[in-house]
UniProtKB/TrEMBL annotation:
It comes from Prolemur simus (Greater bamboo lemur). The lineage of its organism: Eukaryota, Metazoa, Chordata, Craniata, Vertebrata. Residues 40-123, 145-232 form the Serine aminopeptidase S33 domain. It comes from the Eukaryota. Gene3D superfamilies: alpha/beta hydrolase. This is Monoglyceride lipase. InterPro entries: AB_hydrolase_fold, Hydrolase_4, MAG_DAG_Lipase.
Length: 261
């Protein structure tokens, strides 16, 4: 009898047995990606993509992070990219968090003792037990013309629009996050564009003011939009530098990242 992974296929009709994947608590297959450094990793970083997109859009950033001797891993959330699930539908945003925790637990078993960081974009909630969070801050296409073309031609981007059920769960998740902000104690880095039309900068200031973290940093990029890692070159290079320095200072990695292969 064939393994189930040989029968299950991605929404793009590729057998999961040919792809790195995990099976979540609901029995859904999630497509995974891994970027491994050439040296022994000093820390683990999970990259959480934003609404309507997929983790493959973080390949360039992930390869930069491997230059810091960091093992980067990610998966397409349920209903996104190459993972199973109705497009942009989730019963509760906790499903996203639960799946992230499952993936983190699996990686920690293979790499015991390594600190864990979360790098999130837009719809992110830090998993408990993580060593730190670097949300460098989706839905809103990038502002650079070349990146707009890349975004518009990406077949894995969901263009069905925001469904009411997804929007309701998003609002519920935002309310839970707002209530939880005063309980945040772990280190975090917040990077945001002042012209971001999806995430109000007031939220970033609120987190800075309310979180009990002793180690917290906020940087606002004047005139920049939502997708900072796909902005004008000077913005993107600064974002890369900020993440590089922030993570380096908390892992002992050398601040000057090697160029990606």
């Amino acid at each position: 009898m064939p393994e189930e992974s040989s029968l299950r296929r991605t929404p793009q009709n590729v057998p999961y047995q040919n792809l790195p994947h995990l099976i979540n608590a609901d029995g859904q297959y999630l497509f995974c990606r891994y970027w491994k450094p050439t040296a022994t990793p000093k820390a683990l970083i999970f990259v959480s993509h934003g609404a309507a997109e997929h983790c493959g859009r973080y390949d360039e950033l992930a390869r930069m992070l491997t230059g810091l001797d960091l093992l980067v891993f990610a998966h397409d959330h349920v209903g996104h990219g190459q993972s199973e699930g109705e497009r942009m539908v989730v019963s509760d945003f906790h499903v996203f968090v639960r799946d992230v925790l499952q993936h983190v637990d699996l990686m920690q078993k293979d790499h015991p003792g390594l600190p864990v960081f979360l790098l999130g974009h837009s719809m992110v909630s830090r998993p408990p037990g993580a060593s730190g969070s670097g949300p460098h801050t989706d839905g809103d296409p990038p502002s650079v013309p070349l990146q707009v073309d890349v975004y518009n031609s990406d077949p894995l981007i969901c263009r069905a629009g925001l469904k009411v059920c997804f929007g309701i769960q998003l609002l519920n998740a935002v309310a839970r996050v707002e209530r939880a902000v005063p309980k945040v104690t772990l280190p975090f880095l917040l990077l945001q564009g002042s012209a971001d039309r999806l995430c109000d900068t007031k939220g970033a200031y609120l987190l800075m003011e309310s979180a009990k973290s002793q180690d917290k940093t906020l940087k606002i990029y004047e005139g920049a939009y939502h997708m900072l890692h796909r902005e004008l070159p000077e913005v993107t290079s600064s974002v890369i530098h900020e993440i590089n320095m922030w993570v380096s200072q908390r892992t002992g990695a050398v601040a000057g990242a090697r160029s990606p292969p």
